[in-house]
Description:
Layout: E1 7-14, E2 20-27, E3 30-35, H1 36-46, H2 72-79, E4 86-88, E5 97-102, E6 107-111, E7 117-123, H3 139-146, E8 151-154, E9 158-164, E10 167-173, E11 179-185
Antiparallel strand pairs: 1-2, 2-3, 4-5, 5-6, 6-7, 7-11, 8-9, 9-10, 10-11
Amino acid sequence: MPPIAKVQFTLYEMPTKRQVWRTATSFGEGEGVVPLSRALMTALQTLGMKTTARPAVRIDIPGVPVNKGDTVASVRSTLGTTVETQPEKSLMPNKRSSSITLADRGVQVFFDNDDKLERVKLFQPYAQAIQGVKIGDSRAAVLATLGEPTNEEFITRPYMVYRAGSNRVSFQVGNKGQVESIWLSQ
Length: 186
């Protein structure tokens, strides 16, 4: 039986802070450099195999069952609160933001211009682990649990940033070298 299509892969290791594998692919006449996962999916589809995209990785927040895009009313209902949103300062012009803070639970939820949930901040007294890390854990404990971060940022304090699928989890490390807050966004 003759081959359906000729598929050739050449892997390249890209010299970046994080090692990223890309591939040059060749399908008949076309050629290009694309992420390895997309190249493999395309190759399988070219060969007539059915493929499905992997669902986005979802990070559960114990005790805070909200999702990006939830409305203010939905978040209030889910969290069992009547607390009103408060305006947030933004460094970006024309960006309006608001939040609901539940200080007794250590939870703050942020909404975008359209009043849709954008991100969640967890702080003391929130006591559940996110990705195996709790507020109060040391920077060394975060590294031992999750390995090196995807990147580190310094805004007002250092943040250790990790990605899980389309999700971003940031651990804000305070002056004592301990996690003071955990930020989750997509």
